[in-house]
Amino acid sequence: MHKEYLTVSNIVGPLVIVEKIADVKYNELVEIEDSRGHLRRGTVLEVSTDQAVVQVFEGTVGLDIDKSRVRFLGRSQQLPVSEEIIGRVFDGSGRPRDNGPQIIARKRLDINGSPINPDARDYPSEFIQTGISSIDGMNPLVRGQKLPIFSGSGLPHPRIAAQIARQARVLGKEEKFAVVFAAMGITFEEANFFIEDFRNTGALERAVLFLNLANEPAIERIATPRLALTCAEYLAFELDMHVLVILVDMTFYAEALREISAARKEIPGRRGYPGYLYTDLATMYERAGRIKGKKGSITMIPILTMPEDDKTHPIPDLTGYITEGQVILSRELHRKGIYPPIDVLPSLSRLKDKGIGAGKTREDHADVLNQLFACYARGKEARELALILGEAALSDLDRLYLKFADLFETEFVRQGEFEARTIEETIELGWKLMRQLPKKELKRIRPEYLEKYYSPAAAAGGEKANEA
Amino acid sequence: MRQGKIIRVAGPLVVAAECLGAKMYDMVRVGHLGLIGEIIELNNDQAYIQVYEDTTGVGPGEPVVLTEKPLSVELGPGILGSIYDGIQRPLDVIRAQHGEFVSRGIEVPALDRERRWPFEPIKKAGDRVLAGDIVGYVQETPLIQHRIMVPENGDGEIIEIKEGEFKVSEVVCRIKKESGEIKELNLFQVWPVRKQRPVKERLMPFEPLITGQRILDTLFPLAKGGTACVPGPFGSGKTVVQHQLAKWSDAQIIVYVACGERGNEVADLLLSFPELKDPNTGRPLLERTVIIANTSNMPVAAREASIYTGMTIAEYFRDMGYSVALMADSSSRWAEALREIGGRMEEMPGDEGYPAYLASRLAEFYERAGKVICPGSEERIGALSVIGAVSPPGGDLSDPVVQATLKVVKVFWALDDRLANMRHFPAINWLQSYSLYRDSLKKYFAEKVAEDFVELSQEAMKLLELEAELQEIARLIGLESLSFKERLVLETARSIREDFLHQNAFHPQDTYTSMRKQYLMLRTILHFHHRANEALEAGKEFSDIVSLEVRDRISKMKYLPEEEEALLQVEKEVDASFKAL
Asked: Which residue of chain A is at minimal alpha-carbon distance from B508?
């Protein structure tokens, strides 16, 4: 039996300070019973000889100084796991939320995990076909990558994430896979959209959901993604599954972290976020990856909404420094009615180079990708120029580029929510657009590929179209 | 061993009482798990300790064991090709012993104690030696001879020296000092990481570090023994630049410190280095490389130590007379670790919450670079170049870490988001970047590359600057308002950018360009420019000039193999096509 303390001396925001303690450890799990007998959970944030600072997940509303009973449980927060966990829905603290039974634990895992030894990492190199051209063609995702979606409020990131979860597959392989979904602070409607989508496509049977909705305790959000990742690690590295982890919305997570930091009166870093936000985010994002000698993998798609669409805000900024690229959504494209409104130029996939090419996608993929980027960038510059000087002031070549940029957006980027393009189709589409431009403009493409794919017949067709 | 008692735990910071007599920066073992930590502040009998491992489960009352030794590294054969964490624990050994995840309280020696190394003496009994003198060597890898040096305070006369196969801890040489004391040398020495290794004399750098990256070598060269910084927002290619330097620069030893960065990037280095061949020697790159990996999810305090661990190892190889290059990716993460620990110690913060001593710590770190005469009687010259990546928030160069770094480094490679978005790599902005070594390297380039190399690179620079001005005008009043000569400048500048500065790190031929080829490429581009200018003066049509087929040949020069003939051929074709005009 654990000792019970009635020595709460201070309650500040989400923090409770307990005095006259003995044998309390850092990061230990705590149970607090309020005057009406309700249990809440928390962890020890700081401990000295006679005092412990406890962060309470469910918040401190209704707690009092004299009647609250505090028990230190002698272990850190754990998640019970077994094969049965697949197909279940939990709340943000890991309690079943689907009226199902408790998980009978095969193992209890510390939700903080341990860092993967860099020497044990296997480099991600298996191309995942998402069926979305602006991702597959331009910013390809590979197994074991962490690729966030930087979105803004009101942009269709849930639809894109759901489309990826629905369509993602590795070419030529049928393997065990699962989706782990963690919701932090999103609305019921948004969460329900995902659940319905998973249900309709049958993905729900292979999914594990951890939900902390907008009206639920904010501090609980600190634990939610860690629970999800612990579950993902179990599925990937012990049950050999390929796991796709979706985390929405990391912005709310970071805000919860800021709330605790403020309550502890810590010296704030940028915009009031704690100085350790980078390290804290990294301990989660870095749990994605592949391990040598293990079959499974963890691919992660964290989603965050950029406050005021500002990429330099600390949350997207620090995320971008940790993750292997980013997919950025554009409000401008969204306004033009283009779905998915993926802003191709600032988006990036860092792991693409080993995941594409002959034998994986197609030999010319890397060159096509670089060329499309360069052409689209030039086209967008021409568009800006045309805005200032009028289209008449553009050179003939610039006008071609301008047209290229328009077509790129309406034909390459735009596609249906249920349209899954193969990588072949995506690359061919890229060539179709590039044939609008004279051959010698395509400097990023190796001559042999230019010879092979920029077929003169098709080129002539393109030129005629231009004249018309 | 003396013990203290923990009285407070706050994340990576632990406070212990009853530690009177402990010294600053001494190593300690914390708690029942024996976690490794370092004392960073003393207050009466209380010691503030930064712990290099996760402190979950540690609480007040647990013991702190004082080792009374500073945090040190082991320097000896077996370092090359290794991968260490921030406090020099070999990650491959940890993996073999403890599995795929790094657990806590692990103690593993940095150098393999069982492996035997062939030691060849070059001194004999009776020789007088000074500290720093080489007594013999171990062929550590086919590429690198590991020179065994007399450690500090080892001046004296050799009374015995052995030959044969030894473990690192076995005595190979005994020296009788002036005082009559006998100093025993084994194959390794121990050195505290925060203490600079001594040098005899510092020299001015005069030789470039050839990197095979055209924009760096031709426009913004770094000297051997110099310092450079690469700041840029995320996605602008800092890490690719660092990797390219680690792969292709002509330093003999590379120390790569992955400080608070991505685990997969380290995996990439580990997988590609054994396969990649050094262009100068043809041997696998791993044979000359040491990797220090303290990724972002590994404990934050060890991240702070990692760059010192790397620096000390680099200095040790410099002392042998090698040219060493250290890459630190990224110093911002190191600064953040300082900030985090400083915050937990409730220090008064400076700019952006960074501690007030940030600038002095950075300066101290970069000053450990340099071209030097190594200690000892042999006048060996060694060089240690340092290239630090900086990751400013939002790419904002007014960030305190960037500003403090720029005050001490001599080369600035500014990465540009806009270029990265256009997939112009390396995305180094030619207008913002600078190198203060251009003058001191002039002589070397004139002698070793070509008489007119420096002039050509200055001309290229001038054209790029002119381009920026002309573009501004064109944007305001339209391209038509420019004269043909001005439009030719735009065309040539574009060619310099796209055909010369743009370099594809993932193309087998393009990834590395020798100085000779860089020179010929640039000469051809500028030759075209001069001929075109002449042609314009002779009344030829501008549109005819810019649509010459030979321009296409120039743009493909980067893919040509490193053959003098083929490269010179392009220049001849330029002449031929102007003649035909």
From this structure: A446
CA distance B100 to chain A (A): 6
**Closest of B573, B567, B569, B466 to residue B519, by C-alpha:** B567
Domain A4-72 belongs to what architecture? Beta Barrel (2.40)
Cβ–Cβ gap A117/B393 under 8 Å: no
Question: What count of other Cβ atoms lies within 10 Å of the Cβ of residue B163?
Answer: 11
In the 8-state DSSP scheme, what is residue A103? P
Q: What is the DSSP letter of A87?
A: T
Give the A window 229-268 contacts with B, CB below 8 Å.
237, 266-268
What are B121's two structure tokens? 């003496």
Task: In whole angstroms, give the CA distance from residue B209 to residue B410.
Answer: 13
What DSSP state is assigned to residue A274?
Answer: B
Rounded CA-CA distance A265/B346 in Å is 10
Q: Is the dihedral of CA B528, B534, B538, B539 positive or negative?
A: positive
What residue segments make up the domains of chain A, in order of their start?
A: 4-72, 78-355, 365-467
Which of B71, B117, B111, B73 shows the shortest CA–CA distance to B92? B111
C-alpha distances (whole Å) from A394 to each of A372, A437, B479 are 21, 15, 8
DSSP states along B330-386 = THHHHHHHHHHHHHHTTPPB-GGG-BTTHHHHHHHHHTT-EEEEPSSSS--EEEEEE
Chain centre to alpha carbon of residue B372: 17
Q: Tell me how far apart the alpha carbons of residues B221 and B215 are, in angstroms, rounded to a whole number.
A: 8
> Smallest CA–CA separation between B106 and chain A, in Å?
13
CA-angle at A10, arms to A37 and B353, nearest 5°: 125
pLDDT in tens, chain A (468 residues): 678 999 999 999 899 999 999 999 999 999 999 989 899 999 999 999 999 999 998 888 889 999 999 999 999 899 999 999 999 999 998 999 988 999 999 999 999 999 999 999 999 999 999 999 999 999 999 999 999 999 999 999 999 999 998 898 888 777 888 999 999 999 999 999 999 999 998 888 899 999 999 998 888 999 999 999 999 999 999 999 999 999 999 999 999 999 988 888 888 878 889 888 998 999 999 999 999 999 999 999 999 999 989 988 999 999 998 999 999 999 999 999 999 999 999 999 989 888 899 888 999 999 999 999 999 999 998 998 888 878 887 888 899 999 999 999 999 999 999 999 999 999 999 999 999 999 888 988 988 899 999 875 544 444 444 443
Q: Is B102's CB within 8 Å of A389's CB? A: no
Q: What distance in Å separates residue A420's CA from the closest CA in chain B? A: 26
CATH architecture of A78-355: 3-Layer(aba) Sandwich (3.40)
CA distance A399 to A388: 14
- Distance between CA B572 and CA B147 in Å, rounded? 50
Residues 319-348 of A with CB under 8 A from B: 320-322, 324-326, 345-346, 348
Contact at 8 Å (CB) between B431 and B419? no
Indicate yes or no: CB of B264 within 8 angstroms of CB of A440: no
pLDDT in tens, B541-563: 999 999 899 998 999 999 999 99
Q: How far apart are CA B150 and CA A203, in angstroms?
A: 67
Which of A20, A78, A279 would best serve as a mutation to test chain B binding (most B beta carbons within 10 A)? A279
CA dist B495 and B500 (Å) reads: 7
Cβ distance A26 to B475 less than 8 Å, yes or no, reads: no
Chain A residue nearest residue B556, CA to CA: A443
